[in-house]
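Weekly structure sync, notes
Attendees: PL (lead), two postdocs, one rotation student
Agenda item 3: pending single-chain targets
PL asked that the sequence for the first pending target be pasted directly into the notes so everyone works from the same version. It is reproduced below exactly as submitted, 945 residues in total.
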Amino acid sequence: MKARLIAVMTAGVILTSAISMPPVLAAEQTTSANAVDSLPDWIPNDLESAVEFLNTYGATHIGNENESDLLCVVFEEPSYSTKKYNIKNTAALPTAYYHDVFVNEETDTAYEVMAYKNAWTSKPDFKIQFSCDSELQKEYSFTSFGTQVIETDIYSWLPDCEKEYWAYVDINSHLSVMDNYVVFGLTHEAGTGYDWTLKDEGKECFELETSSACSRVSVVPVDGGQLNTIYVYKAVKDGYDKISYDFGAVYATDEEAKKPLVADCAVINDAKNILLSGQMRVTLVDSDTDELLTLPKDAMPRIWTDLRQITSEGEINCNMQPSGLRSNPGIVRLGNYFDGFNFSFGLVGDGLPSGYSLPDTDDKSAGYYNGTIVPEKHMAVTKYDNDSADVVFRLKKNNTIKKSTTVTIYDDYTGELIDIPEYFGDAYFTKCKAEGDSEVEFFYVRSNPCTFDSDYLYEPSYYNSFLLNTESGSYDLSEFEVISENQGHVELACRVRWSGNGDANGDGIFSIADMVCLQKWLLGASDSGIADWKAVDLYRDNKIDVFDLIIMRQSIVFSIDIPVAISVTESSGAAGKEITYKVYREGEKCYLYYYDMTRDPDAEPMTIEISEQEYNEIMAQDFAVMIQVIKDPSLPEWGKSKFEFTISYSHDSQYTVYSDRAPDVMTKLKDLTTKYCTYVEPDYRRDYGLPLYVLEDGLKLYLGPDVSYRSIDTIPKGTYLSELGHNENNDIWMFTEYNGNYGWIRMYDDDYRYTVHFDVVAGKPVIYLYPEQETDVHVELELAEAELSTTYPRYNNGWDVTASPDGSLLNKADGTHHKYLFWDADNCRMRYDFSNGFCVACSDTESFLKEKLSYMGLTEEEMNEFIIYWLPLMEHNTYNLIAFQGDVYTNSAKLNITPEPDSLLRVFMTYVPLEEAVNIEPQQLETFERKGFTVVEWGGSEVRQ
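Predicted structure, written out during the meeting:
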């Protein structure tokens, strides 16, 4: 809610702490008896809400949307009765919006709540300090853009509460690198003898920057529980260093096993970057200039590998799927294969930057071949002592076939061809490289359309633009589209936008003076006048009015600097949307932030590195025109969603607009999201996938079936999932859904241990043996996709029995008599076929089973035993989707019987309990004819969703 401004000062509140607060503006000194009732819900107003604030936000939180000028700080003060605490800010804010102290008498702990309200008159940079007995305990830094407050210290991204801790760990794991920081997230159970112990301190290259307690705060003292702590180490110089923590019994000896968490680091680039063990940084450059290349929009360079290892059993091929690069430079996990392996790798020939290719070679393709680079200058490989590496690929520029290019230039607003002036040099195209220093090339335009002798004018991997300057304004912000292309000619459409220069007073400079001039003219001042009407018609409606003044004011704000970040939040739609997109830069890297809470309010955001070109294309939009459009009430098609559109500039200024209409930049943001956040579709989808649960804590969910794809989530141990799809001839990866995200998980780790357990049982398969005369029979079971669980009589490398024609069995191992051989199995990974089958209502289950089992060839006694076992498990389900499995089952659970039977019937029923009926193609069943030595088996599995 939007709270009315009320200053609740310390008057009337008895405090033992000394509070240093700024003076309140005279116009805002009103107090109110209803002050607490008017507070936004997220600002604590009692002991319980103060504790919940700490557990949700940590020590600080800034309001959203209309409350972005509100900053709340909550400090926990232990030993409150004996120590003296103090809160102050280092640069005066105009309003102490709210202040209170809530004391827990039982624990002698106080929670001091201080809320500030920022204003345009505030100083932009300030700090909030918390001290105890004059000793500084914590300090938080902030800046402001107008009334928008932003936290600028390390806690703007570093967790300092339980909720933030697990959100960070789920995305980045318990050990991560953030720029020049190494971050450890350490969790242990309180009240036990087990904890984390610092082993390697990393003193050569690192300093401990800070630590952050992220355990849950409770009003009532509790025993036990999880204790979470963040430790952050900052790189201070280049070199090799190791930071590690051991987990185990605190008083254990060195010989006792402990679980380590190790950051084995190579610090490079003047301590700006860190490579962990196993990482390889890959860079693609021009072979002639060594300039960084721009990755294409629609392709991803991939690295092939040839990985072999010599063992006592011979050479083992360990090849992986190609590792993809989504950025340049990019990181892949190939750095630890240089030693101990016959390791070769190189770039796949397709998906390379536009206009570039691999160098020519005599025989094998260009690459690194177990220590030899082919050709010699194609690559530079630097290996670091921590098993990380830096690899530079030098690509050659292609000699393209010359073509002519015709460009037609349109006004993006009207769709009409623009007029080209007679004076040579006023209209021209420019071209330069997307990254790094590059000379700008000019192509002058003398007509529209205009034809050039070469297609070199336009290349998608370069910056291409059209400019036309006049005394009243200019055409720029061009967008190109290839209309047609053949061997000798390229046809381009170039759409450009007109921008009036706003020079109302005719002094040749666009400034606040022009805004004053236009404002005076609109108010009818006698001494006012407009020097250039076309320059001032910014709204482009052939009249001068207040809308032109609004755009002029916005343009002056935007002229402070080009944008450095933009964000759009879509919310409150008919479908309950809550999605945020943001594009921004940190250092030399550019990022897309994507946060979709539409289906899951606890969903985790995604942060994806994007290319420099993609970042610049977003920032090059005409945001002034964009805001003009979304705020124009005369335009049709107002939507149901609400959009918060924020533009940030380099000099700490920011502009936010709210609208029912999406800004045009949303199209590019959604295209980026689709490119980087879309999963690989499996070869085979499954409507009724097998249920399973996760065995390994922190199992990663990838966008594709390979570790080269981006990890989008980590799945905790014990989580239940369903197999939703798989690829042909790939038994390692499985397609699934977790937390609203679709992706791929690995079913085995590097040591071929299961990471998941399928919660499916092959239930009571029983085997009947009917020889023509008393016969000694040996039966073996071979399971390829399950583990044998229970057998009766006991299975010992098979069953050895004496079988009689009536089906009775004598077990030779212990002399016991049986009607059949029993077995079952768990962790069943058979991909059951539900492409056809039967949907049966609960009341029809018995009659259905009698009909189908009799038709397939079971005797009355066999059928009755089948129904007695399965009917109680099925008849209480509203519906059962039933399919009898054929090769899927028999190929996975093979029977080897000696002597070989003359006829064999294996009935294996699978069913899915359903709440509603479904349509399914009926399954065609076959009848069975008994002859000679006959063997019959029946069993089944329940597949719960």
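Discussion points:
- Residues 97 and 605 are 31 Å apart (CA to CA).
- Confidence is low (pLDDT under 50) at residues 1-35, 252-257.
Action: rotation student to compare against the earlier draft before next sync.
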